[in-house]
Amino acid sequence: MGFMRLYCNVKVKRMKAFLLAALLVACGAISGIALAVPQAAQGTVEVFFTPWDDAEGAIVRALGDARKSIHVQAYLITSRPITNALLAALARGVKVELLADREMAIKGANSQVSELASHGVSVWLETRYTAAHNKVIIIDAVADKISTGATPAVPTVITGSYNYTWSAQARNAENLLLLRGDANLARHYLDNWQRHRNEAKAWSDEGTK
To answer: What are the percentages of helix, strand and coil residues in the chain, rounded to 5?
Structure first.
């Protein structure tokens, strides 16, 4: 009798787990929310924690390594070193494109978005969301198609809580991940960047040149 009771309890628990999983999948399908698919990682990872680690310097050096393209998603960008690194990349022929939160781009204190746009960086402003709170830089996402001679381009993703500001480096407790050499990951981030760009408004359309 005890064995049968235990057997039945196990079956009930398994059935509940199965039904819960099925319900979650169904809810995701109904709501249009996609389930993440695990993928094998490649390349290297560097981790930075501010204010102790030089996250800003790591970003500047990574931007200096860009060979073909830089795609930025920024909530706020006020850092002069990062701004200068983006403009230097543009000057050496790298394609630089920026997605920014509209409110912070226009009203944020010391925002560098106007400066970047005025020097030729392609800028789009995100307006759909309460806050376009992504902090992502994607470098050479299609590096496998790039031939640059002796120094190969390396697909790189930079992300974390770190805003591109002086405060994020000097005052705040932030984290930053710098992931190099994972072409599949960079492609996923670029696909998401392009999805957001398709929803955004061009800087010129806002009359904010």
So the answer is: 45, 20, 35
Q: Which two tokens mark 129?
A: 């969301």
> Hey, how many other C-beta atoms are within 10 angstroms of the C-beta on 201?
15
What is the four-CA torsion angle of 114, 119, 125, 130, rounded to 10 degrees? -40
pTM of the model: 0.80
Active site residue 135: yes
| pLDDT tier for residue 14 given thresholds of 50, 70 and 90 | low
Catalytic residue among 71, 101, 140, 182: 140
pLDDT, one tens digit per residue, over 123-182 is 999 888 888 899 999 999 986 554 455 578 899 999 999 999 999 999 999 999 999 999
Evaluate whether 121 touches 99 at the Cβ level (below 8 Å): no
Find the catalytic residue in 65, 133, 188, 196.
Answer: 133
Residue among 71, 58, 201 nearest 135 (CA): 71
With the CA atoms of 122, 142, 192 and 41 taken in that order, what torsion angle do they form, in degrees rounded to the nearest 10? -140
Contacts of 62 (CB under 8 A, 6+ apart): 137, 139, 156, 158, 178
pLDDT digits (tens, 9 = 90+) for 84-117: 999 999 999 999 999 998 988 888 889 999 999 9
